[in-house]
Amino acid sequence: MSHRFTRALGASLLVTALATSLVGCGGEEAGTTTTELSATEHNDADVAFARDMVQHHAQAVAMVDLTRGRDLDPEVAQLAEGIRDAQVPEIETFSDWLGDWDEEVPPTMLDHANAGHGSGDMSETMEGMDDAMPGMMSGADMDALQAAGAGDFQTMWLEMMIEHHEGAVEMARTEQEDGRYRPAVELAAEIEESQGVEIETMRDLLG
């Protein structure tokens, strides 16, 4: 009887130890995708997110600028202006963060346009900019959009903006996984949500 009790107790302790080990492993695995957030401290992921989104948002605003003077459906025109209204302040926020962190604010398409060169070859405005980030249009893409005829422009613009938004959502998810600066992570969550809604709206507009 005593031996059976001892074996049972040993088995119970073994099960408890295994369960504790599994819980511990699970906690470590979860921690690899979660960074402790800070209201003041930032990391490399925050810097990369801010720097990339400055250029990414600026290109979206440049795409909105190309809708000016075009014969668009009212819903599309309203969506375009909504994108501008949301992303221009966010560009300013990202730029302010980079300045606070003593990081360089990258050049954007809007810098070129504001210098009085917005109506030329769009490829030239992309020089020195990273078009490899998710959803970023190339200079050739922007040239094609600018040159599109009345019958093609709206569809092309919606398709390109969907791809552009999908890239922003991907970048926002990466920031939420890897970022440390709480305001940046929270803004990333807002971008994922708002641009996800706009993606669905644009898909509906395309029919």
Automatic annotation (TrEMBL):
InterPro entries: DUF305_CopM-like, Ferritin-like. It comes from Nocardioides salarius. Keywords: Signal. It comes from the Bacteria. Residues 46-206 form the DUF305 domain. Residues 1-26 form the signal peptide. The keyword Signal applies. The keyword Phosphoprotein does not apply. Gene3D superfamilies: 1.20.1260.10. This is Uncharacterized protein (DUF305 family).
